[in-house]
Amino acid sequence: MTPGRILLTQEQIRARVRELGGSITRHYRGRRPIFLGVMNGALFFLADLLRAVDLDDTEISCVGLASYAGTKSTGKLRGLDALGKSFRGRHVLIVDDIFDTGRTLSALAARLKKLGAAEVKICVLLEKRRRHEVAVKPEWVGFKIADEFVVGYGLDYEGRYRGLRQVRVLDPKGKIYRQLTPDGELPP
Ligand code: IMP
Ligand code: MG
Q: N or C: lower Cβ tally within 10 Å for the chain?
């Protein structure tokens, strides 16, 4: 299992994140949103998105959620109980790497509502084209992609490949790369 074909280049990601930042800025202008990053997958996306958002009064928070084992969702979500801060009356934007079945973000959104959030919206870098198993939908989606397992730009396979600069499709028969170049790219 190694990173294969490039799905999204650094330039494509950068340009789209800029657009999302503009749209999110317009939505929250005059308000005081909390950006809630879902760790670890949202690490790069959250940081890049925040730099593309032009709002003075924002709060940033993170929650660690996990449901995957290898390339399969286990359906069991761990980490929701650790939501520490007060969300009562707040406008929360959940930021995550990918909307797959949607179960993770739907459970998180439901919990935030229960904690009294005034508004809960979702922004994801990627959404898989598949039958989502939940009623919630992300308001902001960077890219809709095929139902393939992807890694890079925060997305992992068993904890690996998060540091890749691009989003790549996981290749089950790919060559094993033991080392990345100093720029974090795969060797040619
Ligand atoms: P969902 O609950 O099925 O929507 O799963 C969402 C979570 O599963 C994401 O936050 C990711 O951590 C993980 N995930 C789903 N698809 C992929 C993928 O293609 N690559 C890496 N992680 C994925
Ligand atoms: Mg995740």
A: C
* More confident position, 5 or 72: 5
Running DSSP on this structure, what letter comes out for residue 82?
G
- Does the pTM surpass 0.85? The reply is yes
Minimum mean pLDDT range among 4-18, 64-78, 106-120, 129-143: 64-78
The answer to whether 119 and 92 are in contact (CB under 8 A) is yes
Residue nearest to atom 8 of ligand 1 (CA): 68
Mutate to test the pocket of ligand 1, among 106, 155, 156, 168 (most ligand atoms within 8 A of CB): 155
Distance from C-alpha of 3 to C-alpha of 135, rounded to nearest angstrom: 32
- What's the gap in Å between 100 CA and the centre of ligand 1? 6
| Phi, psi of 167, rounded to the nearest 5 degrees | -95, 125
Contacts of 56 (CB under 8 A, 6+ apart): none
Residues with beta carbon < 5 A to ion ligand 2?
A: 41
CA 72 centroid distance within chain: 17
**Using a 6 Å CB cutoff, which residues line ligand 1?**
38, 41, 67-68, 73, 96-104, 149-151, 155-156
How many whole angstroms separate alpha carbon 104 and alpha carbon 134? 10
Altogether, the residues listed in the chain come to a count of: 188
Q: Has 100 been annotated as catalytic?
A: yes
- The residue type of 127 is E
